[in-house]
Amino acid sequence: MAEEDNNTQQAGAADEKPKLTFSLQRIYVKDISFEAPNSPGVFKQPFKPKVNLDLNTTSTQTADDQYEVVIKVTAQVNDSETGTTSFLVEVEQAGLFRIGGIEGEQLEQTLGAFCPNLLFPYARECVDSLVNRGGFPPLMLAPVNFDAMYAQRKQREAQAAESAE
C-alpha cells in the first residue's frame, strides 16, 4: 500500500514538470530598406561589387511564453575600384515563437541560434528580391551557422566578464 502511494506521488511529480512547447506563430518583415544612391550612373559602368555584410540577432519576450526574434541583415555593395555605393539593403526579418518549459542557457540558445536558423531563409529571400527589383544581379547570401555565432558571442561575454574582474 505504501508502495502504491509512493508510485502515485512520483507520477504526480513527473506531471508537475513543465511541458516543453515550441511553435512558430508568425514570420514577418519588421523593417525593410533599399537604396541605390548612385543610380542610374552605377548602371553605366561594369559591375565589380565589393560586399560588406552585417548580421545581427535580437530577441524580446512579448508575453509569458512568447518571444519575438529578429534577424537584421545589412548589405552594402560598393564598386571595388571606385568605392562608390551601388546599393544598400537592410532587412529585419522577425518571427513570433511560443516557447514553454525551456529556461536558462537552453532558452538563450534556442532564441540565439535555433530560431534565427528558422528565420534566415526568409531574410535571405527578401534581400535577394529587393536587390533584383533594384536592377542589380542577385545577391545570394551564403548560409549562416547561427550556432557558431551564438557560441562566439557567449565566449566574448565570458572573456569580457573575466577581464572586468
From TrEMBL:
<comment type="function">
    <text>One of the proteins required for the normal export of preproteins out of the cell cytoplasm. It is a molecular chaperone that binds to a subset of precursor proteins, maintaining them in a translocation-competent state. It also specifically binds to its receptor SecA.</text>
</comment>
<dbReference type="Pfam" id="PF02556">
    <property type="entry name" value="SecB"/>
</dbReference>
<dbReference type="GO" id="GO:0051082">
    <property type="term" value="F:unfolded protein binding"/>
</dbReference>
<keyword id="KW-0143">Chaperone</keyword>
<protein>
    <recommendedName>
        <fullName>Protein-export protein SecB</fullName>
    </recommendedName>
</protein>
<dbReference type="GO" id="GO:0051262">
    <property type="term" value="P:protein tetramerization"/>
</dbReference>
<dbReference type="GO" id="GO:0015031">
    <property type="term" value="P:protein transport"/>
</dbReference>
<comment type="subunit">
    <text>Homotetramer, a dimer of dimers. One homotetramer interacts with 1 SecA dimer.</text>
</comment>
<keyword id="KW-0811">Translocation</keyword>
<keyword id="KW-0653">Protein transport</keyword>
<dbReference type="InterPro" id="IPR003708">
    <property type="entry name" value="SecB"/>
</dbReference>
<dbReference type="GO" id="GO:0006457">
    <property type="term" value="P:protein folding"/>
</dbReference>
<keyword id="KW-0963">Cytoplasm</keyword>
<comment type="similarity">
    <text>Belongs to the SecB family.</text>
</comment>
<dbReference type="InterPro" id="IPR035958">
    <property type="entry name" value="SecB-like_sf"/>
</dbReference>
<dbReference type="GO" id="GO:0005737">
    <property type="term" value="C:cytoplasm"/>
</dbReference>
<keyword id="KW-0813">Transport</keyword>
